């Protein structure tokens, strides 16, 4: 790993390095030159410094002994006595990975009075649950939880760590990765493992145009976050054999700069990720008022309306309704897409749906490549007909 080191005794603050940096990564603060994370190590500053005050130091990369890191550790997010469902999806993936490299599966659970939760976890193919309990850990505080996570990793030395890409997971995982100066891949859509225990972390990149395969070959642990509903939940183990290890929480791990004054539960409609039926509207919809048509169909089928990104960008619907790479991942039993072309960024968020019915007037629309049923037609003709048909059938059957 290379590093640029400024010799402040030699630097006369001429500012030449600031001018030559093509990445705007150098600035002057408090009478000192600073190099930010935007630096790409092009060395132009070092070469152009008249005082030779910037040294490029090429440190030899330290390579970790992979044999010393064993196990797949799943972070168990829990709130008010409920384990987040992404946990069981992560255990499912951990199980697949563990089988191919013959590693154990561990869970880490942090909180207060949560020991009963470990019984739920032990029904699954988990070898050991590491339990950290303390009243100070009742609510998530990123600094204390990072300390505890670090403690667990130093004890267990897991090769792979899986964390849900929830609000908490997204805040916690990068901090943990930074403590170990190791890699983290966010929002993985698929995970594979090589014989040498390198985790192949697959996720869309460059706006969804490529599926990047990311590995962490020089450091351990390897950390990946995965969104809820991307992986399949695991089944309970036939012969659960796991154990609980209660871990000691030292007082200094609980030092926090965060004070929690009040915890309030936000009233929310079920998220589009949690419903079984979705009617997804796209740019084929001509105006905001027309959305009521698709909302009516959604209500009739006991589902919710969701949309593509352009409708969110036009301000027609709230972001929480957006499906896709930069929106929510959904896996409903039924999704009917109306006037949606099927761009990769949209498909990335819904391709695992159980039944996809696509309505589009363009027979060459990419969405038809993934739909289970294709309706080639105008949404303004097909959807009203569908609504009428459902209502008639219900009237006839007295529903
Ligand atoms: C980094 C990045 C992230 C992105 N993230 C997301 C994301 O999370 N979610 C997302 O959705 N997009 C995302 N996008 C945008 C994405 O690339 C597409 O632009 C978007 O999904 C297109 O939405 P659409 O299918 O509604 O519109 P269009 O692609 O314009 O398709 C409209 C479709 O409607 C059909 N149509 C028109 N009129 C009718 C009619 N009367 N009856 C039937 N069919 C009709 C047309 O034939 C067409 O196929 C992202 C893009 C980038 C670069």
TrEMBL record:
SUPFAM superfamilies: 4Fe-4S ferredoxins, Adenine nucleotide alpha hydrolases-like, DHS-like NAD/FAD-binding domain. FAD binds at residues 283, 308-309, 322-326, 360, 378-379. Keywords: Electron transport, FAD, Flavoprotein, Iron, Iron-sulfur, Metal-binding, Oxidoreductase, Transport. It comes from the Bacteria. It is an enzyme of class 1 (oxidoreductase). Residues 2-31, 32-59 form the 4Fe-4S ferredoxin-type domain. GO terms for biological process: fatty acid beta-oxidation using acyl-CoA dehydrogenase. Transmembrane segments: none annotated. The keyword Electron transport applies. Binds 1 FAD per dimer. Its cofactor is FAD. One of its GO terms (molecular function) is oxidoreductase activity. Gene3D superfamilies: 3.30.70.20, HUPs, TPP-binding domain. Its EC number is 1.3.1.108. PANTHER family: ELECTRON TRANSFER FLAVOPROTEIN ALPHA, ELECTRON TRANSFER FLAVOPROTEIN SUBUNIT ALPHA, MITOCHONDRIAL. Belongs to the ETF alpha-subunit/FixB family. This is Caffeyl-CoA reductase-Etf complex subunit CarE.
């Amino acid at each position: 790993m290379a590093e640029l080191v400024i010799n402040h005794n030699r630097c006369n603050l001429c500012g030449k390095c600031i001018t030559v940096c093509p990445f705007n990564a150098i600035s002057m603060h408090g009478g000192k030159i600073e190099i930010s994370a935007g630096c790409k190590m092009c060395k132009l500053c070092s070469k152009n410094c008249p005082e030779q005050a910037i040294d490029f130091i090429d440190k030899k990369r330290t390579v970790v002994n992979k044999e010393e890191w064993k196990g797949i550790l799943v972070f168990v997010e829990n709130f008010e006595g409920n384990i987040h469902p992404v946990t069981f999806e992560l255990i499912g993936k951990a199980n697949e990975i563990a089988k191919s490299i013959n590693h154990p599966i561990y869970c880490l659970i942090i909180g207060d009075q949560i020991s009963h939760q470990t019984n739920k976890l032990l029904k699954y193919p988990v070898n050991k649950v590491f339990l950290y309990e303390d009243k100070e850990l009742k609510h998530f505080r990123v600094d204390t939880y990072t300390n505890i996570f670090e403690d667990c990793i130093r004890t267990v030395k897991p090769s792979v760590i899986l964390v849900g890409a929830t609000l908490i997971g997204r805040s916690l995982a990068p901090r943990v990765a930074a403590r170990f100066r190791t890699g983290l891949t966010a929002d993985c859509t698929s995970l594979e493992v090589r014989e040498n225990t390198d985790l192949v972390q697959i996720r869309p990149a460059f706006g969804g145009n490529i599926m990047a395969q990311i590995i962490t070959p020089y450091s351990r642990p390897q950390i990946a976050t995965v969104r809820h509903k991307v992986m399949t939940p695991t089944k309970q183990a036939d012969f659960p054999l796991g154990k609980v290890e209660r871990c000691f929480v030292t007082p200094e791990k609980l030092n926090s700069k965060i004070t929690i004054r009040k915890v309030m539960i936000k009233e929310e409609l079920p998220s589009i990720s949690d419903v079984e039926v979705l009617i997804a509207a796209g740019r084929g919809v001509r105006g905001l008022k027309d959305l009521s048509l698709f909302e009516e169909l959604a209500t009739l089928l006991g589902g919710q309306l969701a949309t593509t990104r352009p409708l969110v960008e036009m301000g027609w619907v709230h972001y929480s309704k957006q499906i896709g790479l930069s929106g929510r991942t959904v896996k409903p039993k039924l999704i009917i897409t109306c006037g949606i072309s099927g761009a990769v960024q949209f498909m990335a968020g819904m391709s695992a749906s159980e039944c996809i019915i696509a309505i589009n007037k363009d027979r060459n629309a990419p969405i038809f490549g993934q739909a289970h049923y294709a309706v080639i037609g105008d949404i303004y003709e097909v959807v009203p007909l569908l609504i009428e048909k459902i209502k008639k059938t219900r009237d006839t059957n007295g529903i």
